[in-house]
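Troubleshooting: if your tokenizer reports a length mismatch, compare your output against this known-good record of 307 residues.
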Amino acid sequence: MDGATAGDDKNGFQAGAWHFAALIAGNVALALGPWLVRLSDAGPVSAAFWRLLLPIPVIAFLAWHGRRVGPLDRRLAALCLAAGAFFAFDLASWHIGIERTRLANAVLFGNSGSVILMVWGLVAARRAPSGREGAGVLAALAGAAILLGRSLEISAATFIGDLFCLAAGIFYAFYLLPAQRARGALGPWAVLLLVSLAASPLLLGMALFAGEPVLPGPAGWTPLFALALSSQIVGQGLLVYSLRHFPPLIIGMALLTQPAVAALVGWLAFDELLVPLDIAGMALVGAALVLAKAPAKLGQAPTRTSG
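Known-good structure output:
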């Protein structure tokens, strides 16, 4: 795929083999996060706290290296604080859900922010959905209903875990709204640094309030360092490097590698088997994620997605 483009040249998406490899590898790295959360014997919210706190020195260096000229005014600071608060609730809900449901479900529902943003955009614009948008919403609802029903068949705890992961998807959508505005002025690494600084104390407070163990036990620091490295440095770094080279439709399709990897890890590490009905539900939700990222009209330049 060297020298090939992921989209039309007129849209400015110039992607080569390394960009595509980085896009896939970034999604794979992020998909390993739920497995590492389970391996850690700190509490789930505590694991989210360490996930953000441990890589701050590296993120600060990357933010300084890629710094942009411009002051951090009150508006940008407020956007980063709001994004940090929503990101803290996103990670707390998601990590709690990871402990209670299947890894594939956790990844799918945790990534549902794209569909939620599409619905939010329709509500904000006060207009009816187009055919593509309507198909995406219906696919998301049908797939979620199948997966939630299957979880309820397995156990009430699994069903509750799905609900936590769905809540995480909602919080993630509201994290993206202020974060994307701030990224245009500050750059992705600077925003991630400010968000991490804002979210970390909130997560620590939540973990202490819930009575979770904050420090790791016999499992040690390895899962936490691996979680911080894979999710916040490797995953984010590869996506920051690659996303600007692809149209949203390709990004949405690449996103589907995450539930596939999570399902494989769930099967190998935790004997989480998927029946055909599970696969059908995952396919519907996955199709909704792709449709949510697709361009609104053929021939229209797609909106770029930041990492």
